[in-house]
Specification:
Layout: H1 14-34, H2 46-54, H3 64-77, H4 97-109, H5 120-136, E1 145-149, H6 152-167, H7 171-174, E2 183-188, H8 194-202, E3 209-212, H9 222-234, E4 238-245, H10 257-267, E5 270-274, E6 299-303, E7 315-319, H11 324-329, H12 361-396, E8 399-401, E9 409-414, H13 423-433, E10 439-443, E11 447-453, H14 461-480
Helix pairs in contact: 1-3, 4-12, 5-12, 6-8, 12-14, 13-14
The structure holds pyridoxal-5'-phosphate (PLP).
Length: about 475
């Protein structure tokens, strides 16, 4: 009998593979068709999950179909179903069909995007997308550069690093101890907390982050911002970066970007726009004005795994400084491929935080090839319409809106008895019941509210009705105690 290759359990034989692909197809198709009939939220039972995992015996090989069935059944029961039409969540959408296909192809072909010569098509495709998105945000094609990232946090981290290198070119070589003054940068109190993390891991420390209070519309307070910059300079700090948010996580608020552009120019600060979610507005002609100012930003974060609905993770960092990524991330090694030397191409490992990298852009490329700009515009427009419908319906049912956003993030409290109908209690009840997922937020540091965001292109009018009915039912339950 011929002995089996030692790899036969790594690459399974053709007939098993065909069975497995068919089986996976069934699992994925069932999920697409049935997810809306399932609870949105899981029952949180860590001991049950750990027991199921502990029962796995890695000394024995298990049938591949059984293995994927185990995973699928665990995922069915143990996740918040973000692709569910009644998930009103944190910008995690239902993945596009083509995005799922893209992730499958990327896994199977496994192109390595560290060096251009290993994956010329993949690197060029990502660069083409970067230029296309840059153009959409108003960057001239000839000036646009950027990189795909794991998500918005890595894109914001990249922005912080490039802004630092722009102001302190010796930083990469000599480190933070060589800086003549303590660098400081400015974000609003409603900005994403990835900036604090980035400050901490970049070595400049969280104390370098000036968290500027917001005004009564939850936008960065311009007067306080100006005063803080002035005081910082007077006190011997080195301001280097100003961040504007286009679509805050809690309330979908857009900072006054054009005003921030002017301040950044006057103060010679790098201006970064975190448009991780709100950047989706550039797809809709009549909403593009909301992002006026982005074209003058030094860099922009835009997350394809938010409003472009591709599977996680797919973030994008864009910049109009063509040399800054190389200045920040260039490294020389003898072992990396040099097959493309002499060609005018970019090696992504010189150009970003990551080294080995997945073809992140593929799921974006395929989704865009099929949906097109117009397909996305239509879907985003519909979500905006549903947001307006939700607002009207909430007000009719005695809820009070507490945020003002052109985007479909709706924050609200009970209008008549806010001291009894505490947002946290409503949200806890709703999550336990499992029919929908919403969250609670604290706005401007003091207003507790319920937050519902239409972030899923599958959400329809009937789901908005169901959400408001669920909220009204739970309000009665909370009222009765
Ligand atoms: C405004 C904003 N910026 C950045 C991020 C971080 O993005 P990611 O979770 O993709 O890293 C988020 C996440 O929701 C966000 O809302």
């Amino acid at each position: 009998m011929a002995s089996q290759q030692p790899s036969h359990l790594l690459q399974l034989d053709e007939s098993t593979r065909r069975l497995l692909w068919d089986h996976l197809k069934e699992i994925i198709e069932r999920y697409q068709n049935d997810v809306d009939n399932h609870r949105v939220t899981p029952l949180l039972e860590p001991s049950k999950i750990r027991a199921a995992l502990s029962a796995l015996d890695f000394k024995k090989s298990i049938d591949p179909l059984q293995a994927v069935d185990f995973i699928a059944s665990q995922l069915w029961e143990n996740q918040v179903h973000t692709p569910h039409a009644r998930y009103y969540g944190l910008f995690n959408p239902a993945p596009t069909t083509m995005g799922i296909a893209g992730d499958m192809l990327a896994a199977a072909f496994n192109p390595q995007l560290a060096a251009w010569s290993h994956s010329p098509f993949a690197v060029e495709a990502e660069q083409h997308l970067i230029r296309s998105f840059g153009h959409l945000f108003g960057y001239p094609q000839s000036e646009t550069d950027g990189t795909f990232t794991s998500g918005g946090a890595e894109a914001n981290h990249t922005a912080l690093l490039t802004a630092l290198v722009n102001s302190f070119p010796a930083l990469g070589t000599s480190g933070v101890q060589s800086l003549p003054k303590q660098p400081v940068f400015y974000v609003s109190a409603e900005s994403h907390h990835s900036f604090l993390k980035a400050a901490s891991i970049s070595g400049i420390g969280k104390e370098s982050v000036r968290i500027v209070p917001v005004d009564n519309q939850l936008k960065i307070n311009i007067d306080i911002l100006q005063n803080t910059i002035t005081a910082d300079r007077k006190n011997g700090f080195a301001p280097f970066l100003l961040v504007g948010t286009a679509g805050t996580t809690s309330a979908g608020v857009i900072d006054p970007l054009e005003h921030l552009v002017r301040i950044a120019k006057e103060e010679e600060l790098w201006f970064h726009v975190d448009a991780a979610w709100g950047g989706g507005a550039v797809f809709v002609t009549e909403l593009r004005y909301l992002l006026n100012g982005c074209s003058s930003a030094d860099s922009i974060t835009f997350d394809a795994h938010k409003w472009l609905s591709v599977p996680m993770g797919a973030g994008i960092y864009l910049t109009r400084h063509r040399d800054i990524l190389e200045k920040t991330f260039h490294i020389s090694t003898s072992y990396m491929p040099r097959d493309a030397e002499g060609l005018t191409v970019i090696d992504p490992y010189h150009h970003s935080i990551q080294w080995s990298r997945r073809f992140i852009g593929l799921k974006v490329l395929l989704s865009l090839m099929v949906a097109g700009w117009d397909g996305y515009a239509e879907s985003i427009r519909n979500m905006i319409r549903l947001g307006d419908q939700l607002r009207k319906s909430l007000v009719r049912s005695g809820w009070k809106l507490v945020n003002d956003s052109p985007l479909p993030v709706v924050c609200f409290v009970d209008a008549s008895s806010p001291d009894i109908i505490i947002p946290e209690k409503v949200v806890q009840n709703i999550i336990l019941r499992g029919n929908t997922w919403i969250s609670s937020v604290v706005l401007g540091g003091s207003t507790q509210a319920i937050r519902a965001c239409i972030t899923n292109y599958r959400t329809a009018d009937k789901d908005i009705t169901a959400l408001v009915e669920e909220l009204n039912t739970v309000r009665e339950i909370v009222r009765r105690g």
